[in-house]
Amino acid sequence: MPHPVLNLDDVVIQTATPAGAPQGATAERYDLRWGEIASRIGARKLGYNLTVVAPGKRACPFHSHRNDEEMFFILEGAGELRYGEARHPLRPGDVVACPPGGPETAHQIINTGATELRYLAVSTMEPVEICEYPDSGKFGAFADGMPGADNQPPRFRHLGRAGDARDYWEGE
Questions:
Q1: For the residues of 90-130, what is the DSSP string, one character each?
Q2: How far apart are CA 48 and CA 32, in angstroms?
Q3: Which of 17, 26, 78, 169 is the most exposed place for a label (fewest CB within 10 A)?
C-alpha cells in the first residue's frame, strides 16, 4: 500500500501528451505539464495532479465533461477561469468547481500572470467519459476499463465532430 501522504515538493512534474495527440505534440498556446499524485498516495476513486502552466499559456482546450467532476485549487500565480460564457480572475487560495454538464460548464484555466501558475487538480475519474470542446466543435469519447491479463487497462479514445456521425445501420 502506498504511503497516504505526499508533499507537493516531492511531485515530479512532466510534460504530458493529451489523449488522442501524437506523443510529444503540444499546440502553440498550450503548456501541459503535470505531476501525478493519486497512485502515489493510494487514491482509488479520485484523480489528483499538480498542474504547472507557463505565463500566457493554458493546460488544455476549453472543454466540458459529461461524467467527471473536477475541482481546482490555485496554489501559486495568477490566472483566469473561462467558465461557460463568463471569465473569472484566479489567485492563490481560490477553489474552482467544475461539475459535469454541457457548454454551460465548459472550463479552461489560463495563466494571465508573469510567473508559472500552479494548481492542484482533482477529478472523479469516471471510467467512461464524453468531453465536448465548444471552441472547435469537437467531442472526445473515452473509456478506460478494468485491467486485463497484462495488467494494462483497455482503452478506447476517439476525437471527432458531430458532423462525422454515421447512420446506425451503415455497413451492417
A1: E-TT-EEEE-S-SGGG-EEEEE-SSS-EEEEEEE---SEEE
A2: 15
A3: 169
* pLDDT tens digits along 86-121: 999 999 999 999 999 999 999 999 999 999 999 999
Helix (H), strand (E) at residue 162: none
Q: How many domains does the chain have?
A: 1
Residue given cell 471527432 in the structure block = 160
In whole angstroms, what is the distance from residue 78 CA to residue 86 CA? 17
Lowest mean pLDDT among 3-12, 13-22, 30-39, 64-73: 13-22
CATH value at residue 48? 2.60.120.10
Give the full edge-to-edge strand order of the sheet including 107-111.
86-90, 79-83, 107-111
Which residues, other chains included, contact 32 with Cβ-Cβ below 8 Å and sequence gap of 6+?
Answer: 15, 16, 17, 18, 26, 59, 60
Residue range(s) defining the domain that contains residue 19: 8-127
Q: Which three cell numbers stand for residue 14?
A: 512532466
